[in-house]
Amino acid sequence: MFDPLATPLLFAIFAAAALVVLTGGIRMTGQADLLADRTGLGEALVGGVLLGAATSLSGTIVSVTAAMDGRASLAFSNGIGGIAAQTAFLALADILYRRANLEHAAADLANIFQGALLMLMLALPLVAWLGPDAAILGLHPASYLLLVIYAGGVYASNRVREEPMWEAVETDETAPDEEDEEEEDAPSTRKLALSFAAIMAAMAVAGWVIASVAGVLTDRFEIKASVVGALMTAVVTSLPELVTTLAAVRRGALQLAVGGIIGGNTFDTLFLVMGDAAYREGSLYHAIGKDDVFWLAIGLCMTAVLTLGQLYRQRQGPAGIGIESLSILGIYLAAIAIQTIL
């Protein structure tokens, strides 16, 4: 569909789709915060599950579309590269929040639990890549495990929040999850949910456009699919996470900001399941290369640093940014340099 179009027009279409994704992400933040208060589920859980899944929708479509076109590397690196980019966005949010280290102020057991869950889910594709090429009803066994672990993790996250066996020590900088006062003209919960669903649909269409244009550009300029996936489509489809995170920090919804990133990253691992189902030439995990696995390892390292930062809870880092955020940005920038320069 996009093959005959001139390159400038392709970039214009790509930018327009990115704008749809960005605008949708901005609208979703306030709606998710209201839904968290009205449902009583809390910012960490709503941010991690509802907002995380919604803002990841365009990225899901990118990976599925790429896999259906036989572009295994693009499908894989898009999801994994998004995890790395979104974790780096959280470090940027730490710079914005000047009062204290963001991971200290947003202390929440549900976010720590999801960080550990994400590391487990990132380890499974690595095991699948190193293991035998097997399939059950067209899916690699690792894909089934990812689905089961994600579903179990969502249930366990809610239980951890309702019946915590561990509590963060409250300090002067800790920002608790409290309900905001609603404006008198706030929409009803039904209208809020319908609006949220409409934005998701628009972002899904934008994701399909981004994937299609990225595939054409990959062929036209002979760029490595792993670079396009990890540093182009992944970053663009992750823009909602950047916007929602910064907006949530400005609103004081710190658990929503951290939970949205970690939960979105956890959901992004399911890109691999959907990509594996859409890829008809065998197992997606065995159709990728070292460059794709490189981004998997980077995402795992960055998540480990983030989780350790939440446990260590440094009050105030140098220059107003936590040590874990500096480390996360350093890992990400080094990874980009290795993939594009070295």
UniProtKB/TrEMBL annotation:
Region (Disordered): 167-187
Domain Sodium/calcium exchanger membrane region: from-to ranges: 10-127, 194-339
GO biological process, one term: transmembrane transport
Record key words, sorted: Membrane, Transmembrane, Transmembrane helix
Protein name per the record: Inner membrane protein YrbG
Chief location bin: membrane
Presence of the UniProt keyword Phosphoprotein in the record: no
InterPro entries per the UniProt record, alphabetical: NaCa_Exmemb, NCX_ion-bd_dom_sf
Transmembrane stretches, start-end: 6-24, 45-68, 74-97, 109-130, 136-156, 192-217, 223-242, 254-273, 293-312, 319-341
UniProt biased composition (Acidic residues): 169-186
Annotated localization: Membrane
Pfam families noted in UniProt: Na_Ca_ex (PF01699)
Membrane topology (UniProt): Multi-pass membrane protein
This protein's GO CC annotations: membrane
